[in-house]
Amino acid sequence: MNKKLSVAARREERWGWFMVAPTIIGLVVLNLWPFVQTLYSSFCEHLGFGHYSFIGVQNYKDMFGNTEFWKATWNTVYFCILTVPVGIALALLVALLLNARVRFKGGFRTIFFLPLVCAPAAIAMVWRWIFNTEYGILNQMIGGKIQWITDPKTAVLAVAIVSVWSSIGYDAVLLLAGLQNIPGTLYEASGLDGAGKIRQFFTITLPMVSPTLFSVLIMRLMASMKIYDLIYMMADETNPALTDMRSLMYLFYRSSFVAGDRGYGSAIVIWTVSLILLVTLVQFQGQKKWVTYDV
Amino acid sequence: MKNSLRRSYMITKLLTYFFLILGAVIMIFPFVWMILTSFKTVPESMQIPPDILPKQVNLDNFKEAIASLPFGNLYLNTILMVFFRVVCAVLFSSMAGYAFAKLKFRGKKLLFGIVLVQMSLPSQIFIIPQYQMVAKMGMANTVFALVFPGLVSAFGVFFLRQTYMSIPDEVGEAAYLDGCNQWQTFYKIMFPLTGTSVAALTIFTAVFAYGDLMWPLVVNSDLKMMTLSSGLSTLRGQFTTNFPVLMAGSLLAMLPMVVLYLIFQRQFVEGIAGTGGK
Q1: Residue B82 CA from chain centroid, whole number
Q2: Least buried of A199, A210, A242, A289, by fewest C-beta within 10 Å?
């Protein structure tokens, strides 16, 4: 190709720049620059009205010395432990059931997917009512007096139940697509070799669906690390279990926009993002052990 | 032998249906319970053991919910926010997606890198500076503020770029030879071929914007300028134990999207799942 661009190529280049311009300008103004600002203000004290003064690592020192912060970190991790494995296992089960030859497949899919289109704020409200200690239908059904949302022991669990319930349909639909890509001939061949259903699941289904399983895992982990809306809706200021269910993003919201301590808030969000990156990297390392890509 | 095979087949089938129906009941029940409660009086809702059905269909809870929240404004704000976010996402992402997929220009890799960086960072990391920008512009408590972070969509660019890459280059070349310039090729020939993906991006953007809670809470504190999500969140402080009103409010808040979902089930499921999510 000529070093000098032809007229047509130069015109193409101008169109290219023109067509990506709105997006790139938007991303720089709305995301790239704010990212730099957040990083910088995590080393600053917020003086009010968007003015900052540099204070070095003080915010991080305060943060790492704060028990509430560590509690929120643990709550977030604990929430992930509660939601991710169980949620994915259940979603895989639902996907397997939907992949069987059943009637009303579309109807079931629609039902399992329904929570996805409902605002988390509304979903949380409904579950607060179900979890209500005195009059909630759940306690009445199991004949207990469990203080689901206000007992520090069960508060995160309650949020986790709602989270799993609302994300199961989404994960199941993704996994179902993965399952449907498995060629039926694999099962026929192994069936002729005398492999039972359970062996087929572990020797064919699981390895074949593992790439999808991995992407669902990553997505679910990232979403769970960022949990905020359900906790915001389910934990009132007066909730005695408040400190036991606050997540990192909840703490970020409180520090930045209720307490107005935006430097400290920035430090929390930087910490959270670092944690997410770390967890994701670990997963990408770990995938080599269990994800099968060679088809 | 044949009999036992047949029996194990029947058992598998039965178990499959059993678990599917059990799952479906668990998924549906909270919604049914919400609807039933929204028609009950407060004493009715506190019956022990509970009455399943309300004694009569009374709409008082809905009236009370509407009296305590400006639902008209909330609907309007939410619709406008969703509308503008969708228009921006589809328009700008289609343009950029096409350019990244089909055009040669210097700096392409670097610019696409910016798209990827944005996609891999959680939106919360941008919120404080975004809020400060809106505040500085004096635009807090406006529809513009609600739309602001969604003016461009890195995810949309990424997603539509893949769609354009799947269209053979010959299609564009043919149009070019017919005398279309790059814009005409994009607008008249290529864009109409991406209908399914544009629908998916529309649904994905709409559902995500509709459910978002933190940004509208941060940026619009005036009750009249809130969205359905953020407005609803203020209700829980007002009616701590009046669950029938809370259920009526929740029902009103989720209704528009649920109705759309029930009409366009397939497009919703495939749209949201097809985009792979964020």
Answers
A1: 9
A2: A289
Helix H or strand E encompassing A44: strand A44-48
Query: Superfamily assignment of A60-289 in CATH?
Result: MetI-like (1.10.3720.10)
The string of DSSP codes covering A79-135 is HHHHHHHHHHHHHHHHHHHHHSS-TTHHHHHHHHHGGGGS-HHHHHHHHHHHH-TTT
Chain A's closest residue to B120, CA to CA, is A277
pLDDT tens for A216-236 read 999 999 999 999 999 999 988
| CA separation for the pair A218, A214 (Å, rounded) | 6
Query: Between B160 and B47, whose confidence is greater?
Result: B160
Amino acid making up residue A158: A
Separation CA A224–CA A84 (nearest Å): 8
Lowest mean pLDDT among A33-42, A280-289, B169-178: B169-178
A123 at interface of B, judged by CB pairs closer than 8 A: yes
Contact at CB, A126 and B100, closer than 8 angstroms: no
The pLDDT value recorded for residue B278 is 39
Q: Are residues B122 and B18 in the same domain?
A: no
Chain A residues lying within 8 Å of B257, measured CB to CB? 117-119
pLDDT tens digits along B44-84: 888 878 888 888 888 999 999 999 999 999 999 999 999 99
Separation in Å, CA of A57 to nearest CA in chain B: 18
Domain boundaries, given as residue ranges, for chain A:
60-289
Which domain, by its residues, includes B45?
Answer: 2-62
Together in a domain, B99 and B115: yes
* Whether pTM exceeds 0.95: no
Residue B228: its chain A contacts at CB < 8 A? 119, 121
Both B154 and B89 in one domain: the answer is yes
| Contact residues, chain A, for B233 at CB < 8 Å | 121, 232-233
Q: Mean pLDDT lowest for which of A131-140, B6-15, B109-118? A: B6-15
Q: What is the CA radius of gyration of chain B?
A: 24
Q: Which residues of B touch A12 (CB under 8 A)?
A: 103-105, 182
Closest by alpha carbon to B210, among B234, B226, B198?
A: B226
Chain B residues touching A29 at Cβ < 8 A: 133
- Is B230's CB within 8 Å of A121's CB? yes
Q: B144 and B125 share a domain?
A: yes
Which candidate from A30, A50, A120 shows the least CB-CB separation from B211?
A: A120
Question: What is the number of structural domains in chain B?
Answer: 2
Look at residues B62, B80, B104 and tell me which one is the last residue of a structural domain: B62
